[in-house]
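To whoever is on call:

I kicked off a structure prediction for a single chain this morning and the downstream step that reads the tokens threw a length-mismatch warning. I double-checked the sequence; it's 254 residues and nothing unusual in it as far as I can see. Pasting both halves so you can look.
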Amino acid sequence: MHLKKMSKTQTNSSIDQEEIDKFSRMSEEWWDTEGKLRTLHDINAIRISYIRKQILEQFPNVNNSISILKGLDVLDIGCGGGILSEPLHRLGAKVTAVDASDKNISIAKEHAKIQNLNINYICTTAEDLAKKNLQFDIVLCLEIIEHVANPSHFIESCSKMLKPGGLFFISTINRTAKSYLQAIIGAEYILRWIPVGTHSWNKFLKPSEIDADLRKNNIKIIDIKGLKYNPLKPEKWYLDKEIDVNYIMIAGKL
């Protein structure tokens, strides 16, 4: 099968209203670990483990404890219902979490209230938040960049909010023939892990493309790992050197 990259619509905004509407329709299922968004719950532990390990390595003054993020300002962009924001808060971070869907933010706020967690949830975009001249020690964009209209502009907006010496985490899906087979055909049509139409293969990004945009904003990749799935392993999701499908990276602002 010949896979041809489709042209991306260039716009000064990263907002893709169809993508926002898509996840708004699933907003009620954010905290259902067996629902349409269960795959995000499944990979959450490995994402948090990677973030924690990298922070220990890159911030030598942090305390290796349950409150490892204490004293750090963290921005979670595309937070959805807050499934990553809440663990980050419990690790001691002062968390600001944003999403362009008001339904997602409503779900996140309500869940945090029930859990008695003080997280600053805001319904906004990366571009609009960047205009407020806020700065963060850590910026996270996990499973969001493949859903924006203009990744380059999105990365530029995110970079403006990262302090010098700060850390930028991105996780997404590579644009390869293998990712089409596994992330589209396999995950959506065969295994039904996620609803059909959740992803568009042409919007997947190669690490080299993200790297080019990061460098334009004085940010350099520090580490990159693949996220792999093996149902025979005790922890079914694990990190690997192969990045041909799912991957997560950390970059630092110079």
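Update from on-call: the warning came from a stale cache, not from the record. Cleared it. Sanity check on the structure: Residues 38-58 form the longest helix (21 residues).
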